[in-house]
Structure formats: structure tokens, C-alpha cells
Amino acid sequence: MNQLATSMFSIVEAWFLAPDIKLLKIQAPLIARKRKAGQFVIVRVHEHGERIPLTIADADPGLGTITIIVQGIGKTTRQVNLLNAGDALLDVVGPLGNPSDIRLFGSVAVIGGGVGTAIAYPTAVALKEVGNFVISIVGARSKELVIMEEEMRATSDELFVVTDDGSYGRQGLVTDMLRELIEAGRSIDHVLAIGPIPMMQAVAEVTRPHKIATTVSLNPIMVDGTGMCGGCRVLVGNESRFACVEGPEFNAHAVDFRMLAQRNRLYRSQEQAALKKFENWLQYALDPTPCCQLEKEHPEIGPRSHT
To answer: What are the Cα distances from residue 276, in Å, to 71, 76, 273?
Structure first.
């Protein structure tokens, strides 16, 4: 793939931030100049690959690079995470979506759950630049999965790190920390929460009784990123909205999270089948010893001789 890097979107840097979470800096000068906090790109690894949306975590217009951070969960994200500096992506389309609402709110809580921290980071930077007091809460399941702590610390007036298992920072959920701040009487004028659907929904329920304006960045299924396919439909305030062109950020208190989770599960079986086939291919690539399909499906029969 290296020889194609000059004609495609070459990767200039790549490294893992945590297990299965990789940072890639990609040469994309036009996107780097135009991108604003909260926007995303749609990428394709190769000619026959699917299109997936990824938030632009950072950009350097001078160097002409954008930064994406990818968690290897499905087939395509794992394919992306196999790439290294010198490799390239076939397509990178963007910037897409509406930028984050950046204005002087006063005191803002920016909450990132898991890889959502990478998505929240550019908006935290922009909110700080216009004069907001930024309180950041970074959450992860365990210490090894905490990402971008120092970057968030550098752009925050206060930073709290929580882990589910207590292996780093404070033990608990991001909602525990947020609730504690609110109950302590801390002034919070706006909340931005980005992470797994259950986490964003939980944040919305913490802030709702206090009437604290809360924004979430939604992650529905997307294909074209222009609103044509309709795959990214979400229900907001009982109205159908297209996340790729009207979002990805919406009022958390109006989002139908149940519908969002249901739609994101529509192709779960196909996704799992594609991932299994890819893992089988990857295993064969690492160990090309021939084996029959029966052995793959029934390892309990043990190795057989191949002639």
C-alpha cells in the first residue's frame, strides 16, 4: 500500500493510545483548513470497503493533517487499526456535519466516555478559547483505557478522571462525578457529553431535573454523510432528524435514546458475521497453514493431516 500513499490519503503518523484504540494523522490539507470542532469525515479503507464516519479529533492546517482516533470494534475499524505510517486510506470525505455550538456559556462540563473523550476534545478546546470555564470529566472502564488525559488537562480549568473499576482516578461513573458537582452547588451552565449511548442517556437524566442545557454527539449508522441514504435518522423532540447533516450534536433532553440504540442494533448479526470472517482471514494471513472449514467450526475434533 505504501506506493499508493501519494495518490490517496497518506498516513503520516499512527500509534495506539490504548488497547484497540489508535490515533492516526492523515494528510488531508483541504479538510484540515476547513474543519471545525464537532465535524467528522467518512473514510473508506479500500475499493470494496464500507464507509464509516469518524470525528476529526484535531487538525493542523500548516502541516495539512487531520487526526482521527479509532476504536477497533468491527471489521472496518479493525482494518483501519492495522494501518501504519506510510500506508493510506482510499477515501476521506469531509468535513461533514454541523460544527459544535461554540459560544460563551460560562461554566461548561465536558464529559468524555471511553473513545468519546477524543470526540469531545476539539470542542473542549474551542469552548476554552472563547472564554468558558471548562470542567472536564474523563471516564473509562479501567486505567489502560483512559485516553487523552494530558490533552484534556491542558485545555481544562479542572479535570476529573473516573474509572469503573477504580484502577485509576476515582472509582465510579462519569455521572457520579457530574452529580457530585451539581449537588455541591457548582455552577454549571452547559454540559457536553460524548460516549456510549447508555452513558449519554444517563448524563441527560442527571441534568434534566436541574434544567442544565445538555448536548450530545450522536453516532447512528451512516453511509453517504449527505442525508440521502436515511440511515442516520434519529428521533429528536418527536421529529425525525438526519444526524449527518443536521447533527451530529443535538439537545440531549430531546433525543429518543431508545430508538437510537434500537436502530444501531439493526445490522448487529451482519456486523458480527463480517467481523468473524475478517478475523478468520487475519488468522490465516498470520498462519497460512491450510485447514478445512470443519476444523474452524469444530476445533474440538483436533488437528487433521492435510494432503
So the answer is: 17, 12, 5
DSSP 8-state secondary structure symbol assigned to residue 226 = S
H-helix segments, the chain: 29-34, 75-80, 116-129, 149-154, 174-183, 197-207, 243-246, 257-264, 268-286, 293-297
**Main-chain dihedrals φ then ψ at residue 174, nearest 5 degrees:** -60, -30
pLDDT digits (tens, 9 = 90+) for 27-76: 999 999 999 999 999 999 888 888 888 889 999 999 999 999 998 888 88
Domain boundaries 2-96, corresponding CATH code: 2.40.30.10
Question: Candidates 3.40.50.80, 3.20.20.70, 3.40.190.10, 3.40.50.1000; correct CATH number of 97-217?
Answer: 3.40.50.80
Report how far Cα 283 is from the mean position of its chain's Cα atoms.
27
Strand partners, 42: 53, 93
Domain boundaries, the chain: 2-96, 97-217, 220-266, 269-301
Position 183 pLDDT exceeds 60: yes
Phi, psi of 291 (to 5 degrees): -150, 155
